[in-house]
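ok trying again, last paste got cut off:
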Amino acid sequence: MKKYWLIGIAFFGIGVTSCSFLECDPQDFGDETAYFKKADDLKMSVNSFYELFPKMNALYGGLYVNDNTSDNQIGTGADELFYPGTKKTVKQENSEWKFENLRGINFFINKTEEELKAGNIVGTEEFINHYLGEGYFFRAYDYYRLLTSYGDVPILTKMMENNQAELAAYSIRAPRNEVARFILKDLDTAIDLMMDKAPESGRLCKDAALLMKARVALYEATWEKYHAGTCFVPGNAKWPGASVYPDFQFKAGSAQKEIEFFLDEAIAAADAVALHRNLDKEYITMFNSLNVFGDNDEVILARYYAVNVISHSCSNYLGRTGGGTGLTRACVNSFLMKNGLPIYADGNGYQGDKTVYAEIQDRDVRIATSLKGGGFIHGESIKDTIHYVKPHLSQTGNESSTTGYEIEKFVSDVDGQDVQGKGTTATPIFRAAEAYLIYLEAYYERHGQLGGNCDTYWRALRKRAGVDENYATTITATDLSQESDLATKWKGTYIDKTLYNIRRERRCEFIVEGMRLNDLKRWRALDNMVEYQVEGINLWTEMYKMYGTDDLKEGTVSQAGISNYIRPLQKNATNIAYNGYNFPKPHYLEPIPISEFLLTVDQTTSKTVLYQNPGWPADYDGTADYSYDCD
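nice, full thing came through this time. structure:
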């Protein structure tokens, strides 16, 4: 079978410049009389949408730094999302409020369906349907980006005429639950149209649409549950959309029934994937191999690379430097011992944290193989030798080690992969493990107990992680007061221990995969980020002896008098977040750019149909009102 390189070849291309969806001209899809006539035309048209997926960059960065905006990792500076005062409304081109991708996707869907109805497309029906299904998938995928960023957004399904009244009508934001339902409907269409098995490796298949459906449904269900009654959920007077939708009613009949609807959708879609996909390969091989598709049933979709076409520098940066990032102590501490016990439980065998090597002995495979210092080290002069790793604390910028916990997860020791710009290891996009975890969480949220296939799926995840499969042992030994996870509490009260351990499992499975921020948002866990100090390795007990005095000066690392643990926010007294992160509630959603309000003003009434997200200004560029009452 011919390999399809998932590198976003831009034939008809997604626009590279941003503009308001009210201003943009239609995307250029070439000569309509020449294209949209054969199955291969549809294939080439939809190829460019694959660029929407996360990837590793040709130089520094990419997927492995996406979790810098979370409590799992930290980059070289304080993140403005986590403290008040510097995050502002921005110009449209610098925000996530962009619709040019959707315009291109809508054109593809509408034109394909028009030509199909006219009988103008020739070729195998199975392939024609599949590529149309990919179009529906990508519309859902891009709408999920908008949903997680803004909540309520306009639902656009066609190209619009240059008519002010029509444009204004289409700019009205739909309530977030209806946006989520629209996404699920598109994914149902994709599921019906797409093949069970991808026509080429690197392409979507039915299971990808099912998994995406489960992801969206779980996100919306838990967002609506944990933000219920606040300005972030429809159906109450504090919701900004109440003035536009004074008679709003949840489609399912009530707020609780709406949550249950999404949970049921998540359970069914996740189960449809998990039932026939196994976790039978080593965890780390999915992230440092050249081809993870053909021989790994777990990987539903991966992005592939090719030298001299498009490649990355992941193994180069992470292998020889700190990569300008680092895992946090809170993240590392969440991983269990192999016997299933937390690191604070009696009899767990934990060796302490005086060195990184000691810290991750007999721990969950996912941390032992994702973190430098747990065994065989890549990018060192002595290969296949267990030894201490000296974190790159004195290096700066993109080569620095911000916490001392350096990432190993995406590093390959295949010859040539450590050359800058020559990396071609594949990047998993969708994995069946996510279906297992979605099923676990959605089932427990829906029923308040473990049942159905929960036991099978949870044991499979722990078995592959090298952890005792008896999760009941972990639940019994869990003391939430000793956990440093932001997700242990909701509205100031500890959640139950089973639910927390399901969340723990998810955190550990998706380390360095850019999933954490959305989880913290939907669980409303960022409410707990108050005077929150990010910490790294235990430097000042033992590991400081590996460095010279100049390597450990103030401004490079936090000093011993502050804490034995590296505190990236306190390495310099001038750091704006020196006293810790304090998450502002308006930051749960992004602000709509001010320019959009000007573009949607009715010339007769001087009013706009748009409403701004809670706490953000609608008439000037600036920071949010941090006294805004969201509850």
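cool. The longest helix spans residues 125-150. The two ends are 55 Å apart (CA to CA).
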